[in-house]
Amino acid sequence: MRVDLFDFALPPELIALRPARPRDAARMLVVPGQAGFQDRVVRDLPSALRAGDVLVFNDTRVIPAQLEGTRGEARIGATLHKRIDLRRWQAFIRNGKRLREGDTIAFPADVAAAAEQRHPDGSWTLAFAGEEPVEVLLERAGRMPLPPYIAGKRPTDEADRSDYQTMFAVEDGAVAAPTAALHFTPDLLAALEHAGIGRETLTLHVGAGTFLPVKADDTADHAMHAEWGRIEPDTADRLNAVRANGGRVIAVGTTVLRLLESATGEDRIIRPFAGDTAIFITPGYTFRAIDGLMTNFHLPRSTLFMLVSALMGLDRMQQTYAHAIAEGYRFYSYGDSSLLLP
Length: 342
Hints:
By secondary structure, this protein is of the alpha/beta class.
């Protein structure tokens, strides 16, 4: 499909630079499959779902994966996006033309990494020196990797270390937050449990590739970056039981949706999963695992807007985003939410 079909005009003042406080006070646009919209708030979620439904969350934890360093006189920026092994990460590099294979980049707090290999997409393999876990080094030298549409408007600060982390975050490895879950609070979880709505978790380590623009003119020519995920066998069993009993599986975020769809066969059975996924969902895709999606509002021409258009229909999502813009909903990672129920 032509990428320009997924374009829309977004007033820059609707890009949220800080999250709502409290988190569950964010607005939520409920979009049923049929015509009409419901303008609500996230804390209304228990009444927007049904007893027997289950929400699925991503328990990945964002690491401070953005580094600023030098190679000689050249300033080098690095955003780690995928672990290769204990010492090596794949990274997007700013000012990468100043690097050669074998160069050492010096980062703050005595952290150093060798530029080991340049990849065809312009990213590099960085091999970190020393014996400390890379995550420990990042806590000393790194910053939270805010999306470029926020970082370009204000500096990262101490508040982002908690704001850009969900309450479910336990598994280190993401370089971008699964932002749909940023809206949840203990009080909201208690209300959902009281309403008979279940909760499950899986892990998908979100990569910085989620922010990369689609540069191709046709979706068939766009290559997705792989991300690592895991679904435990007992989690898959419980999700299959929910659907067998008439409940709905509602993915909280596109990361959850992509991993569930990667783990599900044409028989609509969700299976255990551990490995990489580079699934790219565009209109025409047949969904197998999920019955609904809670997600923030995405960038024009992005793979995530293509995904929600596959779920709800492109015309329906263009109408949805036109309504959201007209009503002043806040967009992107720190923005408001939508509940899509095809």
